[in-house]
Amino acid sequence: MTRMNKLLLTTYLCLLPAISPGQGLNSAQLLKPLGDDWPTYSGDYTGRRYSGLAQINQSNVKNLTLAWASRVTAGAGNTGGGGRGGGRFGGGGAPVIIGGEGTADAGAGGFGGGTNIRASILEVDGILYFSTPDNAWAVDARDGHELWHYFWKTKGGTHIGNRGLGMWGNWLYMETPDDYLVCLDARTGKEKWHTEIADFNEQYFSTMAPIVVGNHILVGTGDDLDAPGFLQARDPETGALQWKFYTVPMKAGDPGLETWANLDAARHGGGQVWVPGSYDPETHLYITGTGNPTPAYTSQARGEGDNLFTCALVAINVDTGKMAWYYQTSPHDTHDWDSAQTPVLVDAEFGGKMRKLVLTAARNGYYFTVDRLTGEHLVTGKFSDTANWAKGLNAKGQPVRDPAKDFDIAGAMVSPPNGGVTNWPPPSFDPETGLFYVPSSDAYAMYYLTETDPRGAMGLGGKEEAGVGSLGTYLTAIDYKTGKIAWRHKYPGTGGFGGGNGMLTTAGKLLFAGDQGGNLVAYDPANGKILWHTHLGQVSNAPETYMLDGHQYVLAAAGDTLYAFTLY
Amino acid sequence: MRITGILLAIVVASAQVPPAQTPPGTAGGRGAQGGRGGGRGPGGAYPQRAPGDAAAVDRGRASFGVNCAFCHGSDARGGEGGPNLIRSQLVLNDQNGELITPVVQNGRPDAGMPKLALSNAQVADIAAFIHSFRVAGYDPARERPVSILVGDAKAGEAYFNAKCASCHSVTGDLKGIGAKFQDPKTLQQSWLMPGGGRGGFGAAAPVNVPPVTVTVTPPTGPKAEGRLGRIDDFVVTLTEADGTPRTFRRDGDVPKVEIHDPLEPHRRLLPTYTDKDIHNLTAYLVTVK
Prior knowledge:
The complex is a heterodimer of chains A (568) and B (289). By secondary structure, chain A is mainly β. A five-stranded mixed sheet of chain A has the order 1-33-34-35-36, with no helix packed on it. Chain B is built from eleven helices and five strands, in the order αααααααααβββββαα. A five-stranded antiparallel sheet of chain B has the order 4-3-2-1-5, with no helix packed on it.
């Protein structure tokens, strides 16, 4: 053992007492509305990302100040401590616990390079738990010092992001890009088990934050090579499979098969479940969005039909794994516009009576209000000035695709580009304003057909996309009753692309979001008026909030660093 | 229907061309586009198989051609009734024919596949051949150069005179523009948004575009003018003509900020184009030599 390692061991031992034994997370706590903790992906099951905390509010937000910042280093190479500063910049790294079935250290790499925290961060009993692809950390929610770091050596797989961890008792669950579900001891970061959740050879990759419902760990995966999408439930103790729900027909007689050219097309039809859904405890329905059909662009092999149940809201009974209803938000998608946005469950007045609703703003530029008990369509709105791929709405309120805007050998000008009007960044709903908040982008790209084989391409192949220009990037507030834009804040500049990576609203009458300029901003949710800001660099996840020792904190990640703000 | 028409034409044409495939070792290995499903992003997310024994691949190709190609296509990507084998779950998990052999030897009567009297060794060769294809959505080897020049140059000229001539002239600023671009696609992207658009993938063409400038007028004191650096709701930076950098704090409408974007007319036109306008204008501009 080198001196340095001895030193680190000593450091580690000194830190041990600081790790709270914790009572763990009782899954009944997840049924409560968002309060002091942040125990699941969206804070609570509704997906509203609306916190009842109001210590930080419109009257005092101008005094919001940095409590601590903590930088983490992904990969096995984090030796902790040295050079990473102490004091306010975290307490230095903890030793790395290494697991994994592969040999590769993707390290700080990944889509976009660098350590980029896109995850929702769990806060339970004063400890924060979060992840990037192959990495999980626990840090102290009071001062940001690192308690443990778990690193997974990978076989490969698309390292595009990791949406966070799930928690059940003292156990944490993480998906890996090479398709394992890993169970970690929240107290130590040590691995309890890992289990394969999808076939790496079929080019699946797994990014979703596992969602814990009762004794089910719900996990989804991604894939860009013509493989079927599915959601599965796993046993929290053992990882054993409880049920698996395919989003596309897998055998003769399965519902939706008539919307595909044939069974082979359906079985390769995609519809991945890669973004966490929401849960309605009353009906036991887990409601999630599904991804694009495949082949994504050259769709002729899929037939002319709607390609169910891709690009849809689907409601799945968590006890049985059976679908109760669906509503397809993008029939026969041809632009890789996943409808994989976290749906938002709201009990609110509609048409003169209280209704149980689900709200979603899809990547294709259309917003929907749907009855979450039945899947009945109520409202469609368009939240993009530029989206030009649809000819109008059909009787079910679904946009009707214009095939001329699929692509063209000479180029078809399409809005939105592949990234969509919005994407995975979580929206928020404020019950006081009745508004739904979502980042949006109005831009155009040319789509050129490059696959001239009449059978089409596989996966995402067959087209070349070249950006043309942006007409604006916005924070958009939508009225769920009408689907119309209530107000929009346009980020300054000459267009540009990108914007916030998600929203938070609070009972303090505040709306927090990252902006295009790298600021964390507090807005008035009624009208978009700016009340507070600080510059962090690109805010890479959705802001969150928690209450600890009598202080409310606002938490956001920017790349490799967590920032916690509070009032003194 | 338009697409179907194009595809039908290609079906006919493709009868004469060799299968669009590439064995490993040429472009079949991991490319720069090996990331998201063989798409973009960091390379090597899904390692391609190591090249198989060349003799086995050759024997397998011959055997496949005789026994399998009619239904599954000569490149295994699907044919008369038989599915694409490259993306088949069973094939993706097969190593040396051990999963493929029982299917070939027993057939799949329910799916219309006959049994074939092939030995284990013969199926292993066929497997080596199937495994020689790149498994990815993006396969540069499959991309064939196609002309994007489908428009009507005359109609494009009329469009130019109506919509573009108030700012541009083919004998002035755009003189010889058609000769400056080897690839019409690059020319098309460049006239749509000189300097390259954002909000999608794709490379920008190198053309000279005047910079975005900004005028900042504080409540008191002189106004400042220059090249726009960055702007958000809280700060605006600019560089004055003499190189002096300036930074202004922003609070709502104070100070007054006016952005002068030379590409604003191009941006305003985006929602007004039809694809036909675009193709016609490109067809015209390539003739401006």
